Amino acid sequence: MPEGQSRGWRALAWSHAHLALAVLVVLFWSLLGDRLAGLLFLPAWVLVTQLIAAGSLEAARLRRRAWLDQYLRDDSPWHRWLRGGALMVARHQLLGACLALLLLVKMRLLAWVDWPLLLLAVVGLVVLRNGLRRRLARHVIGDHLPAVTRRLVVVPAAGLLGLALVVAALWLPQPYLIGLGWEEALLRHLQGRDAASLLGFFERLGSAVEITQYWAMQNAVESLRLGAPLALLGWLLLLLTQSAFAWAYVRLLIGADALRREGRRSAPVASRSRGEGESS
């Protein structure tokens, strides 16, 4: 391989190392044993929350800045009051904590076939982001191009990943629940799961949701009177859980990318400030 091409591949890999690191950390935690994963659950929850909140905060501030620039004068003090402060941060931290909890619990319950989909989603996100950025480069101000691109790529990336996860869930073998009552199905398939720890409680809750969706979908055909409502319940649970997980996963990647780009942008500013201080 030519030296220039090899250098280009290394530069490409390094420029996206933050995405690989975020995914590998979450995957590694999901493979830990129950005891060690339970001990590291709170640190992992905090870390994933911050990554998700970073991306959502960037999108929220972008929307707020566009609204303020459109309706307020440049010299208006309302810019400072309305640009978003502690309340905005708290709201997105809470949303990030909910999505992070869903992501971590779902990662512990994933089947092996879903892992390649998550790794392919990283590649797909990068391809979508780069293609969209090239199309937007002629229309969007350069300073705002990365943030606008990240905001617009979330929906298609999460939609494609959610669709792939739904197909994988339908393709995988499911527990046979036809003819069982809902309580009996839960008792039969949740026995042996430890709910003493905080992580164990959430894992048990997530497993109960999965059993409920399979029970509703399988028994809908058997019950003529309740068939339609049961089928609707099962499909809604399946679509909501897989879509929410895909949304949280893509938000994790977007947040990691936003933090990396923000760090690269602030580094020259810090160096320039130090240089000015030394010269003075």
TrEMBL record:
Domain of life: Bacteria
Keywords, alphabetical: Membrane, Transmembrane, Transmembrane helix
Membrane-spanning ranges: 12-32, 38-60, 81-103, 109-132, 152-172, 232-254
Name of the protein in question: Uncharacterized protein
